[in-house]
Amino acid sequence: MAVEKIANRQLFFILFLARSTLKIAFLPVVTSADALQDAWISAILSFFGGALLVIAIGGLAVRFPNETMVQYSQKLLGKWPGKALSLLPLGAFLFMSSAELRIYAEALTTLFITETPLVFGIGTMGFAAALAVYAGIEPLGRAADLFFPIFLFTVFASLFIAVPQLQQHLDNLEPVLARGAGPVLRGTATPIAVISQFLVLAILVPELTEPKRALRTALNALAFTSFLLVLVTVATTAVLGPQVAARIAFPFLSLVRSLRIGEFLERIEVLAMFAWGLGHFIAQAVFLYCGAKGLSQVLGLKSYRILVGPMAVIWITLAVHGYSDFFQLKTIFQPGIAVPLAFGFVLVPNGILWLAYGIRALAGRLKPGAP
Length: 371
Known about the structure:
mainly alpha; Amino acid/polyamine transporter I; two-stranded antiparallel sheet; 18 helices; 2 strands; 75% helix; 1% strand
């Protein structure tokens, strides 16, 4: 069987789309809820904490460029302990995918197709992602090549149209740091926790044409998405106002809905929703691919494709029945829940693997005759 590969450029696009779709559509409200007019400062500071998290994930992955986390976990910890530890990050893919799938469907049915059952939006996106995953990682990389410029153009065009209103409401960004640094620092917690999406590096690095450059690619994607988050946070906080941005469900989509071009063109949020759907499709497909690929290696299967259908059904079912309503879904992204989840799914397994790697590296250097 031919080995599937994607370019590092495509990895950048995948990481950018996966992170931007959630942060642009949903996270500004979570950040603004505590930081209010200083939410843009929280967005800047979240990059530095996020970079440490990306280094913790990608720094270990690039040391085993031909192996996934499931494989090098067994090398570092032993067969069964390594497989058991791998189930934590694989569970993270399930959790992230179901939550984001529900968010997308909630936005779709709340803002556009209000009479359509929620299960329709969840099911169609889940089914489309499953078909893409079954096709393989290379088609996903080419889809990211196609969707990235469309997504980027739509978001920046929306921000450009919002500039006149932004200039009229810059006073909504003042006073700066009026309540001190505490709310700003607390506002960084959820954006940093959401960087758990970069766990896909632990599975995708062996699929790259240049796996040794994966960490640099990931940090570049993080920097670009953080810059975009700052712009979106400034625009939503200024135009909608910090109090409204803290309460409204989908602040960026609401911002775009309020825009109009001249006296004849309005409701351009349809274009933003279309672009968000493209990016969300990439995110869902990559999460499903990484989950299926990792689980197939835990179970010792020759191909991950046999797991795609059952896993897609499980993820769709969890997205439909795992949350009673949007407000329960929103609480998951509060710092008190998001941070412990990121700690358990990301920091604990990676910390154990880094410790095992350090011990083995030290033991190797202390062998007789070692330099």
